[in-house]
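Re: your question about Putative beta-amyrin synthase

S., sorry for the slow reply, the queue was backed up all week. Below is exactly what I fed in.
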Amino acid sequence: MTRLSQSAKLVFIKLLHINWKMCVLLLFNLQVRDNPSGDYESMYRHMSKGSWTFSDQDHGWSVSDCTAEGLKCCLLLSMLPPEIVGKRWNLKGYMMRSISYFLFRQVQHTIALSKIFLTT
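Result:
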């Protein structure tokens, strides 16, 4: 019985590590990396770099609720050891892009601040 529980524990830990790594890859691959192409403001689009969407990057329409959840996941992942998460990701870059997105959405009518956030 003890041997079975130890082997089951090892299998569970291995699956947990694999699932964490898959979650991390999914989270980082779904963040929007660029703004829409062309003059997106004339087409009534907003900045979407650093946000998360309902589905994937190709969807392109940024959603603040999804971005908040993505940022929350990045913050939680930054507290986990690299043995669980996998290689050390540039979490600061992912978090800074999403924070810039939020600040842009709040202060988009302030020209000086929006220029600062568009460059990050």
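The mean pLDDT is 74. The radius of gyration is 18 Å.

Happy to talk it through on Thursday.
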